[in-house]
Prior knowledge:
- With 88 residues, the chain is mainly α.
- It is built from one helix and no strands.
- The protein has a domain of 31 residues.
- The chain is 22% helix and 0% strand.
Amino acid sequence: MSKEAALRAMREAKFNARAAAGAKAPTRTTARPPVAPEPATKPAAGKAPKKAAPAPEAEGDALCGHTSMNGRTCTREKGHAAKSHRYS
C-alpha cells in the first residue's frame, strides 16, 4: 500500500466513524460576514501627503530630483551617470 493510499484509507475511516457516531460532516467556514465600508470623508490611515521635491539653489548645483516610491528624492547631480540613486 502506498503512502497516498494509506492516507486516503485513514481519512475514509475517520469519515465513516463520524458518520456512524451521528456527527455531521466537517464544514469549512472561510466566508466572512460583510463589513460596512468606511465613510469616504475619513482620511486613509498610514498615508501621508507627498512632499514636493526641493528646488535646486543654482543651475550648477542642480540635483537629479528622482523621487522614490516613499517620497524621498535623489541627491546626486542632475544627469548623473550612476545607475543607482542616492535618496535622503
